[in-house]
Specification:
InterPro entries: WD40/YVTN_repeat-like_dom_sf, WD40_repeat_dom_sf, WD40_rpt, WD_repeat_DNA-damage-binding. By secondary structure, the chain is of the alpha+beta class. It is elongated, with a radius of gyration of 33 Å. The longest helix has 20 residues. The protein has a domain of 243 residues: 7 Propeller (Methylamine Dehydrogenase, Chain H), CATH 2.130.10.10. The chain is built from 7 helices and 28 strands. It has a 5-stranded antiparallel β-sheet, with no helix packed on it. Strands 2, 3, 26, 27 and 28 form a 5-stranded antiparallel β-sheet that branches. It has a 4-stranded antiparallel β-sheet with strand order 4-5-6-7, with helices on one face.
Length: 451
C-alpha cells in the first residue's frame, strides 16, 4: 500500500518477498552457518593434511624405445627376478619331479609325451651322432632343400606363455620333438607330429629365464637347461630335473666339452667362465676362470678340437684353450677383432670349426639386429648339415627367418604371410633332416619342414 505507483502484480510480488525475508530471518540461518563454519575450522586444525596427489603426468613415465633413447642393448640383459612372484612361485633347490604345471589336467597326457621322448631317444646312438655331424650336402641340393621347407598352420603352437629365450630340437628322425625355454623359467615340450592339445606340455624347473638348452649328444633322453642360478638335466628315464651346477653368480650359457657330455664349459654374466664335471659329487664347478670379459653371453666348443672354446660378450670375441685355464690372468689363443658394439653370440662352424659366425649390434652383413627391449636378441646358428651356411632371425617384413652363406650372400628366406607374423629371434636346425624351428617373444614355435 506504500507504493501506489506499482501495479497490482508488482505489489503482490513485493509482499511475498518481504514475508519470505521475515521467515528466513526468524530461522537465524546466518548465525547457524557462522557457528558451523567455526566448528569445522576448529576440527580441521587438529587433522594432519593429506599430501596433494601427483598429477597423472608426473606418475606415468612415458615408454620410449631403446633405439630412441640411444641405449646399448647390453644393458637389457642384466638378469632380473620375475615380476610376479605370486604367479610364478619360487622353484626349490635340488632335484625336481618331472611333472607339468597343471598336474590335474595334464598328468596322463604328459606321461604319454614323456614316454614318446624316451622311446625316440632309445633308437638314437652315439654312432648316429658321430655320423650326422659330418654330413655335408652338395650346395645345389642344399638350396633346393631350403625351398622345399614350408610352414603350415598345424606346425605353429604356443608352447610356453612368455618370451622364448632358447630352443632345442631332438635328433630323432622318426618324429619332430622340440623344447622351448621362456623368460620365467618354464620349459615347453612339443611333439610336433601330435596335432592335438596333448602334443605340448609345460614344466617349471627354473626360477629365471632359460638362456640355453641342449639335448645331450650322447643320450638325447637328457635335456640340459641353464638359467641364471642353476644348470639342470631333465632325465626322462627317471622323470626328474636334476641339478648339475648351482651358483650365486648369474649363469648365461653352456656347451659340452666332450661327446659324452660329462663335462661342460659355462659362461657367467659377470664375464668369467667355469668348468663343470657332472661325474663329481655336489653342484659346484671344478674351476672358475676370469677371462677379462665384462659380460660373457655365449660359449661354444670347437667341433673337432674340443679343448678350444669361443666366448662372446661386450665387444669381445676370443678363443681359449680350456687346458690352460686358471683362476686369473688367462690369455686367449686368438682374438676376433672388428666388432664395435655388443656381441650377442659366436659359434664355430659345425664340421671343421674353421669359421666363426657372430651377431653384433653393429648390423654387419647389412642385417638389422636391433631387436630392442621386447625381443630376445638374435643368435646366428650354423646349419649342422652345411659347413658354410647359417640361419638367423630378421626384422624384415614380411616376417621371416634368413639363411646366409659365409660370404654374406642371402640364400633363402623362410616366411609365410598367413602363419608367421612375428620376429623369430631364436632358431634351431635339425642335425640330419630338413627341419627348422623358430621361437618368438610370445611363446610360439614355428616349424618349417619338407612337404
Amino acid at each position: 500500500d506504500g507504493y501506489p505507483q506499482l501495479s497490482a502484480y508488482e505489489r503482490k510480488r513485493l509482499k511475498n518477498i518481504t514475508e519470505n525475508a521475515k521467515f528466513f530471518a526468524a530461522l537465524k540461518l546466518h548465525e547457524s552457518a557462522a557457528r558451523l563454519h567455526k566448528i569445522a575450522t576448529r576440527r580441521q586444525s587438529n587433522v594432519t593434511k593429506r599430501p596433494k596427489p601427483k598429477k597423472a603426468e608426473e606418475e606415468t613415465v612415458r615408454r620410449r624405445s631403446m633405439r630412441l633413447q640411444r641405449v646399448e642393448p647390453s644393458v637389457l640383459e642384466v638378469p632380473t627376478q620375475p615380476e610376479a612372484e605370486e604367479e610364478y612361485p619360487q622353484v626349490p633347490a635340488g632335484p625336481l619331479p618331472m611333472v607339468p604345471e597343471n598336474l590335474v589336467k595334464n598328468s596322463k597326457l604328459t606321461e604319454e609325451l614323456l614316454a614318446t621322448w624316451m622311446k625316440i631317444s632309445e633308437i638314437v646312438s652315439s654312432l648316429f651322432f658321430s655320423f650326422i655331424t659330418h654330413i655335408v650336402i652338395i650346395f645345389s641340393r642344399y638350396q633346393n632343400s631350403l625351398s622345399s621347407m614350408v610352414l603350415s598352420e598345424d606346425n605353429v603352437r604356443k608352447v610356453v606363455q612368455n618370451r622364448i629365450c632358447s630352443v632345442a630340437i631332438h635328433p630323432s628322425e622318426s618324429l619332430i620333438f622340440v623344447a622351448a625355454g621362456d623368460k620365467y623359467g618354464h620349459i615347453g615340450l612339443w611333439n610336433v607330429d601330435c596335432k592335438g592339445e596333448e602334443g605340448a606340455h609345460v614344466f617349471a624347473p627354473h626360477n629365471y629365464s632359460v638362456n640355453c638348452m641342449h639335448f645331450s649328444p650322447s643320450n638325447p633322453a637328457h635335456l640340459l637347461s641353464l638359467s641364471h642360478d642353476v644348470l639342470r638335466c631333465g632325465d626322462v628315464t627317471r622323470a626328474i630335473f636334476d641339478e648339475i651346477c648351482r651358483s650365486e653368480e648369474n649363469l648365461s650359457s653352456f656347451d659340452f666339452l666332450e661327446e659324452n657330455a660329462s663335462t661342460a664349459i659355462v659362461g657367467y654374466w659377470n664375464g668369467s667362465v667355469a668348468v663343470v664335471d657332472r661325474r663329481t659329487p655336489g653342484t659346484s664347478s671344478e674351476l672358475s676362470a676370469n677371462i677379462g670379459f665384462k659380460i660373457t653371453r655365449t660359449v661354444h666348443v670347437h667341433p673337432v678340437n674340443k679343448q678350444y672354446f669361443v666366448a662372446a660378450g661386450s665387444v669381445d670375441v676370443r678363443i681359449y684353450d680350456v687346458r690352460y685355464l686358471k683362476s686369473d690372468g688367462n690369455k686367449p689363443v686368438s682374438t676376433l677383432n672388428g666388432h664395435t658394439k655388443s656381441v650377442a653370440s659366436a659359434y664355430f662352424s659345425p664340421v671343421t670349426g674353421n669359421r666363426v659366425v657372430t651377431v653384433c649390434a653393429d648390423d654387419k652383413l647389412r642385417h638389422n639386429n636391433n631387436t630392442g627391449r621386447w625381443l630376445t636378441r638374435f643368435r646366428a646358428i650354423w646349419d649342422p648339415k652345411q659347413e658354410d651356411c647359417f640361419v638367423v632371425g630378421s626384422m624384415a617384413r614380411p616376417r621371416q627367418i634368413e639363411v646366409y652363406q659365409d660370404t654374406g650372400k642371402l640364400l633363402h628366406s623362410f616366411y609365410n604371410i598367413d602363419c608367421l607374423g612375428s620376429v623369430c629371434s631364436i632358431n634351431v636346425v635339425h642335425p640330419s633332416k630338413n627341419i627348422l624351428a623358430g621361437g618368438n617373444s610370445s611363446g610360439r614355435l614355428h616349424v618349417f619342414k619338407e612337404q
